[in-house]
Known about the structure:
The complex is a heterodimer of chains A (580) and B (201). With 580 residues, chain A is an alpha/beta fold. The model of chain A has no long low-confidence stretch (mean pLDDT 97). Chain B is built from 8 helices and 6 strands, in the order βαβββαβααβαααα. In chain B, helix 1 (18-31) runs parallel beside helix 6 and helix 2 packs parallel to helix 4.
Amino acid sequence: MKQLMSGNEAVARGLYEAGVKIASAYPGTPSTEIIENLRQYQGVYSEWAPNEKVATEVAYGASIAGVRSVSIMKHVGINVAADPMFNAVYDGVEGGFVIISADDPSMHSSQNEQDNRHYARAAKMPMFEPSDSQECLDMIREAYQVSERFDTPVLFRMTTRVCHSKSLVEFGQPLQVESIPYKKNPAKYISSPANAMVHRQLLEERLQAMAEYSDKAEFNRMEINDRKFGVIASGISVQIAREVFPADYSFLSLGFTYPLPEKLIRSFAEQVEEIYVLEELDPFLEEQIKALGIKVTGKDIFPNMFELNPAIVRESYWGEKQESVDLDVDMVARPPSLCPGCPHRGFFYTIRKKKNAVIAGDIGCYTLGGSPPLAAIDSVICMGAGFSAAMGMAKAFEVSGVDKVVFGVVGDSTFFHSGITGAIEILYNKGRVIPVVLDNSTTSMTGQQDNPGTGLTLSGEIAEKVSIEALFKAIGFAKVITVDPQDLTAMEAAIDEAIAAEQACAMIVKRPCVLIKNIEHDFKLCVVDRDLCTSCRRCLRVGCSAIYYVDGKAYIDPALCTGCTVCMQVCNFDAISVVD
Amino acid sequence: MSETVKSIVLIGVGGQGTILVSKVLTTALVTAGFDVKMSEIHGMAQRGGSVSTQIRYGKKVYSPLIGVGEADILLAFERMEAVRGAALLKKDALIIVNDYTIIPPPVASGTAVYPDNCIDALREKFKLIAFNAAQVAEELGNPRVMNVVLLGAMAEVLQLDKLDWETALKVNVPERFIEINQEAFKRGRELARSEEEAYAP
Ligand SMILES: Cc1ncc(C[n+]2csc(CCOP(=O)(O)OP(=O)(O)O)c2C)c(N)n1
Ligand code: SF4
Ligand code: SF4
Ligand code: SF4
């Protein structure tokens, strides 16, 4: 029987069916569940890598050693993994090798919506774009055929709605794939300039051969109906096109989109008068099709940003706005905010009091320390930038003679991902920066995955805990202060001590995330004594959604409060107390 | 089976159990032989954000996504979320709403005021079934089954007789909670039925 599966679940199943043996990933929405599902399958080694570059190098190494492998990440992860990815294309593969990129149009949980299809073209590697869960399974199997047949890594480009939408899937038979016997092959796998010269030419031949494959590829489907109107689409837009346009239009639905099926497109153009190109984000197909000298309409009418949906496409195409009912209600947003009891709260509440502090933040739950009422962060760029951007700021303040204390703030997973190099930079180049790791013992933002500091692997095995403190010391930080952010007095003392320190000083702010499942939490409950509450509103400044005003006084929602006592510590009137 | 595809939107606040409801609902629809697509956005780990799931079923479904003004039914787990979700609804759509409030962070920190006219505004424009599922769940002895009370109401208004809700519940709920969930489901159904009768001519 067919099963309702998300694209991520279907890809995991497909990887297993394709005989993949080594899988390495770094978490990132919307890709995270792929490897979390893959780990259930026998005979596949799955791991969390410290970052996407490492994941891609691990998977590529496995390919060189003769087994099918995959590395999995969100779209911005490809930026981190781009170096090994581009070079692996030159050298080619032994065992099939696929890199999965999960893009996030509309930035549901990302800092941008970059269209990673451009990477396929820039790196000169083949690309698949599935449109639903069945295609996720079928195409990932085919991706391994393509990888081995054409001796190349393959980019498998998904998007949020493909990853997280569920549709019906029929399983295939798992393949028995033998490891390829290992043979040393330096001319192929040592990317020296001399070898690269040879590879560069082979790459051109390969692209030619893949273009021919593309014209006949099973996943590039032409359906000629009406000869007046036709639609070319790829990825999720294939489904939206079928939904929106009349069934008697002609369709060219593309699942293998680099290299483009040039002959197929020309043939479609010869048979259909008026062609529309429907694709999410950039005019990736459109510009290439226009370069073939074919007249099409695309981004002139369809939006070039954010996710598409049927209503948007209808409006763009027929010009009529889909009506919806207007309600006269003054809505309030529900912006994400740190959970009640979140360990990050105590740090941001305290550092905010230091008016002279500039805080280069980073990406994780703690980015929310930048939202009101905490509003303690000055910048967030990308993973790892917390330390290194802080360094640049500090140097700039130095040359401009500005008196500021600069903190670089990253989470534990971010520290392992790319914070360590920033810490080295700070020490090596004598930065007047205090690097701070907010160690909540997990990778929280993406749903509490383990990381090198947690002592557990993806498969739940006990691992060596990599010590952040030992790393700081090994780098050369003379002073490493570890503090519990829930004790606001200690937190403030630690910050003051770090600011006053003469030698290089780093700080580890340590307390587990309240959503971690496999540990004991000492949750309690705080309550407000209405008689003692003076309505001063100070407790609201900690930004906890469990405490709010009811009838002019503070009130703590017992269903939400974890009894972390942060609000209690800021109340000057002893109006809040803990009950066990 | 009719050709038309029906679109349902579930909306609530993270942690309210919308995911379980969409699982039971889609299990029942798939078992009954419908083509089903479902889309949900889950990304941010923190609790308290607005979460929504879109479910479409029929003979053949293409897009998993519903646009503005396209949905037939809205199941809202919270009052103000119902208003948020209503933007996706067709004119003559039906809303089932949990008459229950969850304070959003800007209201908690005192920078915004929770709107007091959500239910009235919805009732003016849509066919509305409103009751406090949280209270019903509390009466049943477990506040967390609130979501299944709402699911029961949904089952009633969908009017799809061939759906096997009992099995769908069983495969998605841990064994020891089945009984209370069945009870919650039944109560939701009854509530929706009596509310629906109020609309009968
Ligand atoms: C290059 C890159 N990879 C992955 C992500 C997705 N992502 C955002 S935050 C985060 C992890 C944050 O973990 P941590 O630093 O421990 O902070 P926490 O969320 O636990 O507070 C990840 C994986 C990203 N934004 N960029
Ligand atoms: S998930 Fe954990 S780290 Fe993230 S906001 Fe909630 S408590 Fe804080
Ligand atoms: S800080 Fe204390 S006195 Fe002030 S509003 Fe909160 S509970 Fe009341
Ligand atoms: S003790 Fe105060 S700050 Fe902590 S969770 Fe409860 S209400 Fe929020």
